[in-house]
């Protein structure tokens, strides 16, 4: 693959502080690469270094294999066009005048646009579907229309590489999609390489070939969407709880942000509880223990079970079994380990069947832990095996029987 843009051990800073630290990456010709990262991680700074707005302290940037610092403005403009994060249209320029600015690097001093320039301006407007807005004042256009005009100005340069910094900022979802689809079209149909700073992780996941994650001025990850849009990659960078799932309509990976750092703010009370649940019977109980500062573990749960999903969203340790499968010996042993390290074990009002009978049998292995059992509406589909175990535990006073309400009341007293 042929490279078009390369950062090589680049360090960039303002005043005393280094913002970008030893950053390296390569964008290849024809790719659609997105750069994501939290606010302030240095994304715009990287873009400013390409345009020369900020100098680089160490390392080099190469454009088409040439040292960026040695390129003249015109040479650089022949290869790459940049759409900055903030574009101030302080005058009521007409759309065509904004786009004409894209031709300025190619004009000699005092020279005005030629026939050829006007042709390219119209062509650029056409590419973004805004030719009909040619004579309109930029200040009177909608956000989406304005953004497309600004991209047209970049296209009037006939760039091989289009660099955009948060092009969908301030746009609502319809215009966001329009702008993303436009970039996709430019990439696919005209072979323009796209390097896009995006704040919307899901748009990056949906439209990019590759995603770079920047965190505090350093590269946290660089890879294909499936390698980057992962909980373990994004959670520590964005410091939020999130889950990654496949969007059923687009088939693209997407993140669902959950609560912001709630688990981090939660004060631990140093106690551990293991909850045996399933099918939603644990939902309120899991969350209540979690919020009270218990270290909660759950198991064994089938992957996809609603209690499993809740545990995932709260970042709770869960011992799992494959969907619809009986609990294996391995999962049983792992569950036993979790139970042995718990101060308290809770069996929720879960139906007992063949697939989860081992979750009941395991209760006979308890030693010193307190065991709370909730039995209100649940059924036993094991021909009485499950109920028999539970009843003998209660009869031998190895467990305390509670209603769900009583359990929650006890918890709330703490
Ligand atoms: P991002 O685009 O990822 O949100 P920026 O590159 O804009 O991040 O900013 C990265 C860091 O550099 C921030 O801490 C910001 O405050 C700082 N910074 C940006 N521009 C300047 C500047 N001109 N002078 C001093 N610090 C700056
Ligand atoms: Mg920025």
UniProtKB/TrEMBL annotation:
Keywords, A to Z, come to: ATP-binding, Nucleotide-binding, Translocase, Transport
The record's annotation in SUPFAM superfamilies points to: P-loop containing nucleoside triphosphate hydrolases
Q: Which GO terms describe its molecular function?
A: ATP binding; ATP hydrolysis activity
Top-level taxon: Bacteria
Q: Spell out the Pfam families in the cross-references.
A: ABC_tran
Domain ABC transporter, chain residue ranges per copy: 5-241
Transport as a keyword? yes
Q: Does the keyword Cell cycle apply?
A: no
Q: Which PANTHER family match?
A: HEMIN IMPORT ATP-BINDING PROTEIN HMUV (PTHR42794)
What protein does this entry describe? ABC transporter ATP-binding protein
Q: Which organism is it from?
A: Emergencia timonensis
